[in-house]
Write a structure and sequence with these properties.
This protein has about 180 residues and is α+β, with helices and mostly antiparallel strands. The protein contains 2 helices and 10 strands. The protein starts with a strand and ends in a 25-residue tail after the last strand.
């Protein structure tokens, strides 16, 4: 999670990375994330005015109840429990779903599986889905105000990958052989 003040100094932007979540009741916070095949669930209790967002990568792991926010089931549980700790009542929680795009052939049907999982989970928990923007082939930049439940998204055509500097290490022994093309 990354926090930054926006140009409007009254708002704090909280970035939820893959496998993360954030809950808040602060009217000064905006939660944001960038989604491809991942899914973000935004939950909100309109009476308690608390909300939160998760960002899960995969519907399930080696064990469907894998203890990591990277996986749907656990990500949903920690998000709901975080809201309950802030005073939300499960009977009032509403959901909005985003993401699950098919980004490339390499990712297969991960986006669809994530969407199907999120919808099924919320239905089983009795949490109404008030809005959703799922599937397609474009990434989404998502912003969510946890104290009001307001969500907005922008479709992104091309995502520039974050470039990491290449670190080269000189060999310390002669047991490494380099090949040239």
């Amino acid at each position: 999670m990354f926090e930054a003040r926006t140009s409007d100094t009254s708002l704090i932007e909280v970035h939820v990375a893959q496998g993360g979540f954030h809950v808040s009741d602060s009217p000064d916070e905006v939660i944001k994330t960038l989604l491809g095949s991942c899914v973000a669930t935004c939950l909100f209790d309109p009476v308690a005015q608390v909300g939160g967002m998760n960002h899960f990568l995969l519907a399930g792991g080696p064990d469907q109840m894998a203890q990591s926010e990277r996986y749907g089931f656990y990500a949903m549980e920690v998000l709901i429990n975080g809201l309950l700790k802030l005073g939300a009542n499960k009977s009032r929680i509403e959901a909005k779903l985003f993401g699950g795009a098919t980004m490339s052939g390499i990712m297969g049907h991960i986006g669809k599986k994530n969407c199907d999982f999120a919808i099924s989970f919320l239905e089983c928990e009795g949490l109404p889905i008030r809005a959703m923007s799922l599937g397609g082939t474009q990434a989404r930049l998502l912003r969510f105000v946890p104290s009001t439940g307001r969500a907005s998204q922008r479709l992104v055509d091309d995502i520039e990958p974050e470039i990491q500097p290449i670190r080269t290490v000189s060999p310390t022994t002669d047991d490494i052989q380099f090949f040239e093309d």
